[in-house]
Design a protein that fits this description.
This protein has 153 residues and is α+β, with helices and mostly antiparallel strands. It is 29% helix and 24% strand. The protein has three helices and five strands, in the order βααββαββ. The protein has a five-stranded antiparallel β-sheet, with helices on one face. It is globular, with a radius of gyration of 16 Å.
Amino acid sequence: MSIWWSLHLRREAASVPLARRLLIGTMETAGVDPDISFDLSVALSEACANAVEHGGDDEPGGPSEAYRVTAYLDGERCRIEVADTGPGFPAGDTGTGVLPPAPPVEAESGRGLCLIRELADHVHIGSTPGRSGSVVSYDKILKWREDTPLVAV
């Protein structure tokens, strides 16, 4: 079984639960184990929240008003990608897999990328070649419910 979808969303807080609900609905329909679906949806929420907060320069009418979410369920693996048109990651941070140290426990932000890394099997954080912006993509091996309506191939 192979399923994929792509959304172009406005950089607004309301877009985050929309993307999360679509992902959870897709996985539930496909028969993905609920624990795996939950992990992937939390990681998606973090990636989308980062795109909303940091993904553009906030010029009205500009391309930075949107970001893209793409999800692929292909066989035994799910890959999710969130891309924006913001300033990107600081030089030296893109694609290296090196994350800054975790913020203090009392901090109200700064844990998103660390959380994505904990919830996924493989994470790539970088930029789109030839374009401005950031791309966060992550994979996770899927587990299936026993009553799976769609069989993975």
